[in-house]
Write a structure and sequence with these properties.
By secondary structure, this protein is of the alpha+beta class. A seven-stranded mixed beta sheet has the order 2-3-4-10-5-6-7. The protein has a domain at 1-64 and 334-361: Orthogonal Bundle (Hypothetical Oxidoreductase Yiak, Chain: A, domain 1). The chain has helices spanning 6-20, 24-39, 48-51, 53-59, 88-106, 123-131, 189-198, 218-222, 233-254, 285-299, 324-336, 342-354, and strands spanning 2-4, 70-75, 78-82, 108-114, 135-141, 164-168, 178-182, 207-208, 227-228, 271-277, 338-340. Helix 1 (6-20) packs across helix 2 (24-39) and helix 5 (88-106) runs parallel beside helix 6. The chain is 41% helix and 14% strand. A hairpin with a 2-residue loop joins strand 2 and strand 3. It contains twelve helices and eleven strands. It is globular. The structure holds nicotinamide-adenine-dinucleotide. Residues 42, 45, 118-123, 140, 142, 161, 163, 179-183, 187-188, 190-191, 268, 270, 311, 313-314, 320, 322-323, 325-326 line the site of nicotinamide-adenine-dinucleotide (NAD).
Length: 361
């Protein structure tokens, strides 16, 4: 396992993206987003994508590396951003910037995003809104990507991992915004793809087959065996299914993208509903800082029981706020470097060589 400096990784990713044909500013933005995902521990949405999906998407005309997004419609507190199949990390920036400008003027705003290709780590858009002092909610659908997620009582692949993100600025209360950023399936599909690339097994609670068994072999899952369970798994998956359905339809209505059933699936083409709220239209900065600090201090009193399993990123002695694991991981990785597995590195070397880029690690 290599450890790469984030700035060097970003420079290499920028060069590879320019090799794909992306304009310099788009390449720099997309590289920053991909490395930002790696820094925060979401490798599934990091530079590995350059070596997995993005090249094939370009070949199949599902991603136009040369394109830039446009604001297709702009009225009152609403806007529609058409990504025009450009890199979604570029489109997401434009959508947040337009929404933030409107929410600052009106107190609230809504932006529909269509033809987003792959908007990447949706929490990035909550962080960008929080940087502008805004609360944020995103409902995202896959715009007919090949389905991987099943519904309660089935193992048919019917839905996508439709993410939902919610953000709240913390001002001086914390050095990071609160960001809940989650797939509505047990995990994002990218986490299985990453295990496939690295040859790691898949945790049993993530998947199901028609026999009610789990698929622990990532390669078997990637070649079509079983399906990802909706969030809540075999016991409460109806809740994840409900969230996925609302994300599918809200993104389809506000974002104007296609929903499952309308056409044959293919590559991801995220549609999204981005909602912005200026919390200072309802409260004061002091009150917001106080409620966050008070609530966090209250949580810190929790008794952590050794017999109760903790989620992987949980710090052993107290609960973490949404977005805190990402903040901790990014702080550590900025100082120590980003761990990149040998197989991911080999795949990146290959794509870099294709574009005449010397990865130079
Ligand atoms: P995850 O399960 O790793 O994290 C989900 C949320 O839980 C995060 O907000 C995180 O801060 C919080 N969290 C994690 N561990 C915690 C702990 N110990 N204590 C407190 N909070 C904790 O994320 P995921 O559902 O696997 O999604 C991964 C990424 O995939 C997300 O960035 C998502 O936006 C992205 N995604 C994108 C698409 C797309 O089409 N663009 C589709 C699906 C998912």
């Amino acid at each position: 396992m290599a450890r790469l400096d984030h700035a060097e990784l970003e420079a290499a990713a920028t060069a590879i993206l320019e090799g794909f044909g992306a304009p310099a500013t788009v390449a720099a933005d997309v590289a920053a987003s991909l490395v930002g995902a790696d820094l925060r521990g979401h490798e599934s949405h990091g530079v590995v994508r350059l070596a997995t999906a993005y090249g094939s998407m370009v070949e199949d005309d599902a991603l136009d590396p040369r394109a830039t997004a446009t604001v297709a419609d702009r009225e009152g507190a609403t806007a529609t951003v058409d990504g025009r199949q450009a890199f979604g990390q570029h489109t997401g920036r434009l959508a947040v910037d337009v929404g933030a400008e409107k929410a600052t003027a009106h107190g609230v705003a809504a932006v529909g995003v269509r033809n987003g290709a792959h908007l990447g780590r949706i929490g990035e858009w909550a962080e960008r809104a929080a940087d502008r002092g805004l609360a944020f909610v995103a409902f995202v659908n896959s715009g007919l990507s090949t389905p991987t997620v099943t519904v309660p009582g089935s193992s048919d692949r019917l839905l996508s991992t439709n993410p939902i993100a919610v953000g709240l600025p913390t001002f001086d209360a914390r050095p990071f915004p609160l960001v809940l950023d989650m797939a509505t399936s047990q995990v994002a599909h990218g986490k299985v793809t990453r295990r496939h690339v690295d040859g790691d097994p898949v945790p049993a609670a993530w998947t199901v087959t028609p026999e009610g068994e789990a698929v622990t072999d990532a390669a078997a899952f990637e070649s079509g065996t079983g399906a990802l369970l909706p969030l809540g798994g075999l016991t409460a998956g109806y809740k994840g299914f409900g969230l996925a359905t609302m994300a599918e339809l809200l993104a389809g209505v506000v974002g104007g993208g296609q929903v499952f059933g309308e056409a044959d699936p293919g590559w991801v083409n995220n549609g999204a509903a981005f909602l912005f709220v200026d919390p200072l239209a309802f409260s004061t900065r002091e009150r917001i800082e106080t409620v966050i600090e008070t609530f966090d201090a209250y949580l810190a009193e929790a008794t952590m029981a050794d017999a109760v399993p903790q989620p992987p990123a949980m710090h052993a002695d107290r609960p973490l706020l949404p977005g805190e694991p990402e903040h901790r991981t990014a702080t550590r990785r900025r100082a120590e470097g980003i761990p990149v597995s040998d197989r991911t590195l080999a795949a990146l070397d290959e794509v870099a060589a294709t574009h005449g880029v010397d990865f130079g690690h």
